[in-house]
Structure formats: structure tokens, C-alpha cells
Fold this protein.
Amino acid sequence: MQENKQSNERTLSDRLTDMLAREIRSGAYPVNARLPTEKFMTEEYGVSRTVVREVISRLKSAGLVETRQGSGTVVLDPASSDAFRLGRPDEDPARGVLRIIELRRGLEGEMAALAAERRSAQDMLRINRALAEIDHAVQMDGDGVEEDLAFHIAIARATGNPHYPELLGMLTRALKDAIRVTRGNEARQARLAEDVRNEHEAIRAAIERQDIDAARAAAFHHMLSTSKRIQNVDPEYWQGASSAAAGRLARTRLASELRKGK
């Protein structure tokens, strides 16, 4: 029941995000206009506050809005948010996930190398804490998706190059979906979950000892191994709880309006 509720809320989030993004890009909400309040949107669209907050988070990640003190959620220039957009229609959900992993492969390797070269003691504390929080989430029967992403963002920040965390911010939704799919698969087998834990630890340890080549190799190996795990997934998996996330990675946007299919 809880899983169905979460899946439904993600679907509502998808639809409302797509609808508001279209309205912003069409000019229905002009630059510097304020979006409706959280209370208004929950009543107008019949969704929960959790859904509204997720939608605002996604619009922020897309560079379409920002929160300003005293002004609420304000619309940004949509032209500036379209410098880079993911999306090629693809009917194969596995291929959609693999494309995101391929995109991450070089990015993660260079991030880890730079983090090993430049990381501070404070950076290392954040990386260690992020890895510990993945373990805690799993122990509490969570999916560890947010924590997994936080681990990679902590590494991005340790590079000292602000463009890396900015780029991950632009890719947040796609990365969350890819991580959700891969972690969902890995959680089905204890051996796979342990492999992932060991791969993360290898990256962390190399960064801590400031071994640039080892950090790059460990991150690259992690992405290659993740690809192999996806390639070996049983076909039935794509019909399970991760199908919604995989579907978002396999197509550009939803075809239906917010209220269709409710």
C-alpha cells in the first residue's frame, strides 16, 4: 500500500511539474512572476503538500524558478534554463538508464580525481557522512536514493570547481531516477548491494588518501559495474516498482495533462 502511494505521488509530481514547466516556458507565468502558494496549489490541483514541494524542487533544479525571501517562488527566464536538457524518446527503459550511466561515467571519474587532488578535511567529513547516511537509510529500509545522490554531490563539491555541483543540480531529476532504478535492482540481491557498498568505499578511500589515479579508476569502475548490473536485470523488473522512474528516463515528457488518468 505504501509503495502504491509513493508511486502515485511520483506520478502526480510528474504531471504537475510538466504542466507548470510548459506554462512557464509559454509565458503564462512571466519572468519574475510569483507562482501560486503551496496552499493554493494543493487545493487547486488536489494534490498533497509533499507533491507540491517535490514539484517546486524539480522546477528549481530545472532552473525555472527560485525561492526569494519575502517573495515566495519566483519565475526565472526559461531561456536560460534550456542550455542543456536531457531527453531522447526511447521505448527501452533499460537503454534509457544506461544512457544516463554512460553520461555519468566520465563525469564521475574526473570528479573523483579532482576531489582526491583538492579535497579539504571538511570535504572529507562531508563525503564520509554521506556514505554513512546511505548505510543508515538502507538499515532503516529506505531506498537510499537521496543519500546516494548526496554522496556524489559531496564529491562534486570537493573538486573545488563549482560547475560540477551545478551540473549535477541540472541533472538532479534524471540522476535520481537512474539511481532509484539501479538501487532498486541492487537491493533485490544482498551480493549486489554489498558490491555497490564496496565500490563507494573504494572511491571514498582513494579520495581520503589523495590517490588521484585510484580515485578516477574507482569511480569509473563503479559506473561500468552499474551498467553491467542493469544489463543483467530480468525483464520482469522493468514492470515493477521502478517502472515509473525508468519510463521517465526513456522519454522526453508525459503526453497527458495533469488531470488525465487520475
